[in-house]
C-alpha cells in the first residue's frame, strides 16, 4: 500500500483525536516500518489494519466507519494535490465510471507499484451507475466514502447502496442513483 495512504491517515488521526492518539496506535501496533512513512514509499497493508484496529479500539468507532471518514479526508487531500484532474470532469457519474480506465491509469503513472482495487462498470446512465468493487483488501467503505465525496464535490445528491458479494467485503456491488 502506498505511503500517502498512511501519511494522510495519521494526519487525520492527529486532527480528529490528537497527537497522543497517533503515538498510542503506533506504539500498540507491531509495525515493520516503525510507524515511519513517506508518501511515495510502499508498506504492508497489515500495518493499516493494525492502525485502524487500534484506533477503533480506543475510540469505539467501527473500522468501516473510520474508513468512511478517512475517505472524506483523503478526497480533500487529492483535490488539494491534483485539482486539475478534478476539473476534467463535469459530473460525478462520469468521474466514477472512469475510475478503471482513466483515474487508475493516472495513479499508476504516479505510483507504478500501487495495488489498486478494480471497479467494473455493469450499467451506466446519465443518472445511475452500477459497479463491482474487487480487492484483496476489504476497504469498500473507503471506496464508499470517496464516492460520497465525489458527489459532494459536484454539489449533487445521490443514494449509494452496497451489497457485499463476498462476506469479507473484498467484492461489493455499488448501485448509485442521483437524487
TrEMBL record:
Domain Heme NO-binding: 2-160
Pfam families per record: HNOB
Entry-linked SUPFAM superfamilies: Ligand-binding domain in the NO signalling and Golgi transport
Protein name from the UniProt record: Guanylate cyclase
Organism annotation: Neptunitalea lumnitzerae
Amino acid at each position: 500500500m502506498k505511503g500517502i495512504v498512511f501519511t494522510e491517515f495519521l494526519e487525520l488521526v492527529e486532527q480528529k483525536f490528537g497527537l497522543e492518539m497517533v503515538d498510542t496506535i503506533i506504539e500498540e501496533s507491531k509495525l515493520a516500518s516503525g510507524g515511519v512513512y513517506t508518501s511515495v514509499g510502499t508498506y504492508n497493508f497489515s500495518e493499516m489494519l493494525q492502525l485502524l484496529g487500534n484506533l477503533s479500539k480506543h475510540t469505539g468507532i467501527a473500522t468501516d466507519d473510520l474508513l468512511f471518514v478517512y475517505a472524506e479526508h483523503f478526497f480533500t487531500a487529492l483535490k488539494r494535490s491534483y485539482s486539475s484532474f478534478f476539473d476534467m470532469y463535469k459530473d460525478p457519474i462520469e468521474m466514477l465510471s472512469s475510475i478503471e480506465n482513466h483515474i487508475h491509469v493516472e495513479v499508476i503513472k504516479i505510483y507504478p507499484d500501487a495495488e489498486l482495487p478494480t471497479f467494473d462498470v455493469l450499467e451506466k446512465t446519465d443518472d445511475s451507475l452500477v459497479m463491482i468493487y474487487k480487492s484483496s483488501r476489504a476497504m469498500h467503505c473507503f471506496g464508499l466514502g470517496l464516492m460520497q465525496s465525489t458527489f459532494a464535490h459536484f454539489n449533487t445528491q445521490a443514494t449509494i447502496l452496497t451489497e457485499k458479494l463476498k462476506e469479507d467485503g473484498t467484492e461489493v456491488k455499488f448501485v448509485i442513483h442521483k437524487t
